[in-house]
What we know:
Largest sheet: none
Structural class: mainly alpha
Mean pLDDT: 80
Low-confidence stretches: none
Order of helices and strands: HHHHHHHHHHHHHHH
Amino acid sequence: MIARIAALPREIRQYLLVTGNYWAFTLTDGALRMLVVLYFHSLGYSALEVALLFLFYEFFGVVTNLVGGWLGARLGLNRTMNLGLGLQVVALGMLLVPVAWLSVPWVMAAQALSGIAKDLNKMSAKSAIKTLVPADDAGHQALYRWVALLTGSKNALKGVGFFLGGLLLTLIGFQGAILAMAVMLTGVLALSLSRLDGDLGRAKAKPKFREMLSKSRAINILSAARMCLFGARDVWFVVALPVFLATQFGWDSWRVGGFLALWVIGYGAVQAVAPRITGHTAGRGAAIAWAAALAALPALIAIGLDWQPHLVLLGGLLLFGAIFAVNSSLHSFLIVRMARSDGVSLDVGFYYMANAMGRLIGTLLSGWLYLAGGLTATLWVSSALLAATVLISLALPREA
């Protein structure tokens, strides 16, 4: 097996290494989230209090993507990817302190560090693909497939990580699970440090700090659309949906966590095959059409909740996940294709900063709107944000 990998072209070997890093990180990221949710729920924390533990995780994603893109262009994507892996090991180590020290501020700090690590790793992985694929028309199709595979497999593995977190918690306890993941990720980091190309993604001209903000109108528009798209998902998915399933459907935490894990795995699987679903139409028109196909769905779920809540919500959630997955893959491909070749991480980092801002806005609105108007209110706001996604996407250049 090792000999076969060694015989592959350099670009393929680097892609496999980048993807392997991303997969390993994603497994620990999903498992850590589930460990924190289940462990602190068992200590008596409410669902909203547990959600607040992840507030800094989302907030620092905004800052990290912006600064991380600049660092990647100056230092190389290998260094930002390895920095992300190293910071995740440190974040896991912070949770190995005695149980009495695991206060809310301490766990929020560890989650903040994990959020920084996650976005450094993701920005590096997505940017690296741009440097490994030819820039011709055939390369664009290959780029779409590679981006879709990386993005889809990541989300499927995050769902697997949810299961892994619950399994490890049951078998070896909270601190045993944290230690096992820290050891595994340290091994991945050691391999990455020795094998990943030193100049991967480094810009020929050192970008200035002020160049973090995108000067491309097309990328600014796509970033705004991405912010609304992910705000529309998280405004009802992050807090409102799990709380609704627990309080209105009477599901226990294992059933809620298991269902959401399966949803994320399915969502990732659809992302991975998005190029087969959309075919060669992966530009501006496809982005508008698929966003429009999604826009009314949350509102229809809100209307149908009084009729058959189980059927409407669960069926609607599955349909939402499938269509949203195609939207996400299209956007992920477009940003990598539109990003400049020299210093790709600057544009990709700015774009994923907008992605993180959308998640942060959605997370904050999810708890507030649920308290104010229940799940129905979050669903109506989700449709409004998706309508905004469509309107913003209309401004994308026709050649996008």
